[in-house]
Amino acid sequence: MEAGKASILCSCEPAAAMVFGFFLFEEIPAVLSITDLIIVLIAPAMLVLSDKKPEIVEENDHVKR
To answer: What is the pTM of this model?
Structure first.
């Protein structure tokens, strides 16, 4: 896995902690925390959706003389 992808996926840990805190400890997150959660969850989604295989460019078999 590339370092950039790994760092984006690791940034989901604080978002998961906030969700678990909400459900397990009934903590109410602030508006800024919810905004951060949305941004952090959109980043890996964009990474996965934009991960396209590179196009294969075929070279012509013409011999230059």
So the answer is: 0.54
Structural domain contains residue 37: yes
Q: Which domain does 33 fall in, by range?
A: 3-47
Two tokens at 31? 């508006």
Of 4, 1, 3, nearest to 46 by C-alpha is 4
Q: Please check whether residue 52 lies inside any domain of the structure.
A: no
Burial class, 55, CB count within 10 angstroms (exposed 0-12 / middle 13-18 / buried 19+)? exposed
Going residue by residue through the chain, which has 65 residues, state the pLDDT in tens, using 9 for 90 and above.
Answer: 778 777 777 877 888 888 899 999 999 989 998 998 888 888 778 877 876 655 666 666 555 55
Q: What is the DSSP string of 22-57?
A: HHHH-PPPPHHHHHHHHHHHHHHHHHHHT--PPPPP
